[in-house]
Amino acid sequence: MDWRTRGSVRTQRRHWGRAVALWDNHGVAGLERIIGAVLAAAREDGPSGLVVDVGTGTGALALPLASNARKVVAVDVSAGMLERLGEHAASAGVGNIETVLSPVEELTFAPGSVDLIVSNYVLHHLIDREKRRFVDNAAVWLRPGGRLIIGDMMVGRGTTPEDRAILGSKVRVMMRRGPAGWWRIAKNAWRLMTRTRERPIPLQAWREMLTAAGFVDVTAERVVAEAGLVIGRVPRAAG
Ligand SMILES: C[S@@+](CC[C@H](N)C(=O)[O-])C[C@H]1O[C@@H](n2cnc3c(N)ncnc32)[C@H](O)[C@@H]1O
Hints:
Blueprint: H1 3-18, H2 20-24, H3 29-43, E1 48-54, H4 62-66, E2 69-76, H5 79-92, E3 97-101, E4 114-120, H6 128-141, E5 142-153, H7 161-175, H8 179-194, H9 203-212, E6 216-224, E7 227-233
Parallel strand pairs: 1-2, 1-4, 2-3, 4-5
Antiparallel strand pairs: 5-7, 6-7
This protein binds S-adenosylmethionine.
């Protein structure tokens, strides 16, 4: 990792360190729906051995998944998020979550050692090359038959009718909030256009990325507004 990326990790830590309380109590119905969709998909294969939650935050996925796994490795770039997750785990008596303070860009696991990788509302912060590298790595870390499940903001920059419908509906919701909403429209439009921190790509681009990495049974569906769910499985060993 070079000095530019290191600088950006420091920025990410500062940004997310300030967002712990906000994120822990977000109360946003749309987010609850995508979290629910990731959890439902994760449970489809029954109990898991090793689960990795990338960008775990305060544990919206890691905590419920721990009851159905041997171990959950909860990874985040923010120490504050992981501390809060530790408090939640302790008060719920959950003892099989290991927290790892690391940017996803520096993550490594032994080939074939992971049963399930999940991530919610994290990967759109990565530049596209790092998204691709993460998906390629995930295909190596997962055992044959293991799955990658990604929930995230999945929308392009307004070049397709679908993008325009999604972005238009978000603008209409925020417009109704008055000046605070107008400020958010301006801020988010700027970030999307300049790809500063917000770097989402469309559902179809995720589907193609997983397929190119060798995942099979790849599905991509829109869950609510801009939030999509993409799932792929590492081919099972022949014979
Ligand atoms: C929007 S929150 C989502 C948290 C959680 N997945 C959830 O659904 O509640 C994004 C999380 O990703 C983490 N994050 C952002 N960029 C990251 C990176 N490059 N590597 C690891 N974690 C990252 C942030 O610290 C934050 O906890």
